[in-house]
Each structure stands twice: as structure tokens, then as C-alpha cells.
Amino acid sequence: MTPGIQKVEALDTGHFIRVEWEDGSESCYPCVWLRDNCQCPHCFLRSAGARKLVFKDLDVNIVVKEVTLADRKKISITWPDEHASEYEAEWLKKRCFSEEARAEMQEDLFLPERHYWGSDLQLPKIPFEEVMCDDESTYKWLCTLKKVGIVLLTGAAPRQGELVKLGHRIGFLRLTFYGPTWQVQDKADANNVAYTTGKLCFHTDYPVLQHPPGVQFLHCIKQTAAGGESEVVDGFHISNKLKTQNPQAYQILSSTPVDYTDVGVDYCDFAVQCKQRIIDVDSRDQAVRINYNNATRDTVFDIPVEKVRPFYAALKEFDDLLNSTEHKFTYKLKPGDIVTFDNWRVLHGRQSYEPGSEVTRHLEGAYADWDVVMSRLRLLRKRVLNRD
């Protein structure tokens, strides 16, 4: 329960509002922020949850004219132009500017907690039909996918089309140049190295796109008797290891733009080109996305010649960590399994298998964007946890 408001007052000649809560805590709110976020019908379109106030009309130096407390559950403010605003206690408390409150809100919005793993991964498993029919199971799936980076859905029908159903469950799938879904099997004149029987080294999919797909689904429809094992590795865990043991290599991979290319014909003809850093980092220098696909790394390399060899040395150390037995997890999909994983975090590969006169191994693949997945996760979070 949100505590009531004990006292409210203006500070700093009206530039701030201080709220004293009944539990003894305090919050301070800048008046420019309060005016910017007025919840009245003139300033805010409630049906869309969107601000109507035009920014050019906002006085960034605004001060409060009068502030009053109404029944300990909301404050009322009158501004110099006589515009009136009201703010509910619960709304204010959630948006407190203290470090603790901001961290709590970010946790609720983005679920940033991560569980790192190596060869000791206990692969999370959930029945496919439960995910399709039960909100709690879907919520568990998506929460685990966000936290661990990989979840295996079991018991789907071994036929094409199940991923389209899964896409509808979360919202919609991501269309790419390989189609809304795509078939991973041995093909003559393959337009992708995945469409062969050879070994696939650890990689993330589609770093050649400016915004690579966030989540990948692979549905096993047919599995070869020998070979074809899948391998995964936690790229964020590896990045942390590299940062600790060789900070210079980490700095090179997180700052060097690498050229990627993909040219061919599939869903339509394409000629895609992009620059990505192998390790994308945030403002705290923490890895937020891995962009590594050796197959589509271009022969063009747009860096000074003297930086080329140090880059290769750094990438070799990163790749060695990826392939270390203590870091990679190996498993074999069986028909009806759908592996779902974070394509920004988890690098995946495949062991080779023998070609045959007919298709012996067939996976159907699809992508979804994290925006779509997180949207569904937030909606389910409210529904399952009964949050307003």
C-alpha cells in the first residue's frame, strides 16, 4: 500500500515541491517536471496514455503559485497562469526521484536481472501447449527468457506453422529477408551457411541489420540420427570474463565498428550492409548486445591498418572463451522441441551431420523483436500479478 501524504510544501522559491510521507520518508519533485506531467484532460490524453502539452508551451523556469494537500491522497497545484493540476499519492510515490525508487521502477519496467551460466546450464523447459493456453505459463516463459536467455518449449506438433501460433501468442513475428519463418535444412546452392550440413560456429543472427532480431525461435520438425547437436553459450557471461581477464581486448571489441554484409535472394532479393561493434555496451560499460557472425563478417574492414591485427587478437581471445568447454552447453533437439533464446545475448551453433539423399534434419525458424516480447511480458505481469 502506498503511504499517505503527511505534508507538502514548496522549496527553493517555488522551483521544487517537497512531499513528506506518513511512513517518514520524503520525496522532492521539480516543478518543471510536475507541470510537464499535468494529468488534466487539457494536458494529457488518458485514453492513449499520452501527453498533449506542447513542449514549446512549457516554461522550464516555472514555479508553483500555490500547493495544497487534499485528504492525504493527492496534492493540488495552482500555477502562475492559474492552471490547476492534481497528482495522486500513488502516482507520485512511484515516480520519486530517489535512487532507490528509480531503481525499483526500472526493475518493474525492464526486468534487468540476469542469471549467467556456462556448461552447467540447467536448460529451462515448459510444455508448448501450456504456453499457448495458460497466461501464468506464458508469463513464466517470458520472464525466464529475459532472465536466463534461453527456454525450451516441449511437445509442439512436428510440423511447420507452430511458430506462427507462438508469434500470435506474444503479438507478431519479425519479417526479414528470409521470410516470416524460414526452413533450416540442407539445400542445393544454399544462400546461407545454416542451410548446409556443416558445422556452424557460435554466432548471433543478423548483425548485418541495424536492429538485429531480439529473440529467435527454432522448432525441430525432423532430426538426424547422428550429429546435428545444438550448442549455446552465454555471450554476456563471456563478455564479463573477457573484461576481467583482458580489459584492452574488451575495449577493442566494444569500440571497433565491424562491417557485415549479406547479399542474395530469398523472400525477396537483398543487398544488406551494416556496421556493428562485436560487443555493444551501455553507459555503464556493460554488454547489452553481442553482434558476432563470422560467416557474414565482410572482407571490407573500415579501420586504420595498424588497428587490424590488435582487433583480430582481441576477437580470437573472445572466440576462444566462447568455445571453452566450461562455457558452452550442448544439447540435441528432438521433433516437437522449440528452443527460444535471446539473440542479443546467446550465441548458438550446430555440430555437423552427414548429408543424405533426402532431408534428414529440418528446423523451422522465426524471429521476434524484444519490444514485442517485453510488451506481452508487461501485460501478462499486470494480469498474473493482479497489478493495476
From TrEMBL:
<keyword id="KW-0479">Metal-binding</keyword>
<dbReference type="InterPro" id="IPR010376">
    <property type="entry name" value="GBBH-like_N"/>
</dbReference>
<comment type="pathway">
    <text>Amine and polyamine biosynthesis; carnitine biosynthesis.</text>
</comment>
<dbReference type="InterPro" id="IPR003819">
    <property type="entry name" value="TauD/TfdA-like"/>
</dbReference>
<dbReference type="InterPro" id="IPR050411">
    <property type="entry name" value="AlphaKG_dependent_hydroxylases"/>
</dbReference>
<keyword id="KW-0560">Oxidoreductase</keyword>
<keyword id="KW-0408">Iron</keyword>
<dbReference type="InterPro" id="IPR038492">
    <property type="entry name" value="GBBH-like_N_sf"/>
</dbReference>
<dbReference type="GO" id="GO:0005506">
    <property type="term" value="F:iron ion binding"/>
</dbReference>
<dbReference type="InterPro" id="IPR042098">
    <property type="entry name" value="TauD-like_sf"/>
</dbReference>
<dbReference type="GO" id="GO:0008336">
    <property type="term" value="F:gamma-butyrobetaine dioxygenase activity"/>
</dbReference>
<comment type="similarity">
    <text>Belongs to the gamma-BBH/TMLD family.</text>
</comment>
<dbReference type="Pfam" id="PF06155">
    <property type="entry name" value="GBBH-like_N"/>
</dbReference>
<keyword id="KW-0223">Dioxygenase</keyword>
<comment type="function">
    <text>Catalyzes the formation of L-carnitine from gamma-butyrobetaine.</text>
</comment>
<dbReference type="GO" id="GO:0045329">
    <property type="term" value="P:carnitine biosynthetic process"/>
</dbReference>
<dbReference type="Pfam" id="PF02668">
    <property type="entry name" value="TauD"/>
</dbReference>
<protein>
    <recommendedName>
        <fullName>gamma-butyrobetaine dioxygenase</fullName>
        <ecNumber>1.14.11.1</ecNumber>
    </recommendedName>
</protein>
<keyword id="KW-0124">Carnitine biosynthesis</keyword>
<feature type="domain" description="TauD/TfdA-like">
    <location>
        <begin position="118"/>
        <end position="367"/>
    </location>
</feature>
<feature type="domain" description="Gamma-butyrobetaine hydroxylase-like N-terminal">
    <location>
        <begin position="13"/>
        <end position="92"/>
    </location>
</feature>
<dbReference type="InterPro" id="IPR012775">
    <property type="entry name" value="GBBH-like"/>
</dbReference>
<dbReference type="GO" id="GO:0005739">
    <property type="term" value="C:mitochondrion"/>
</dbReference>
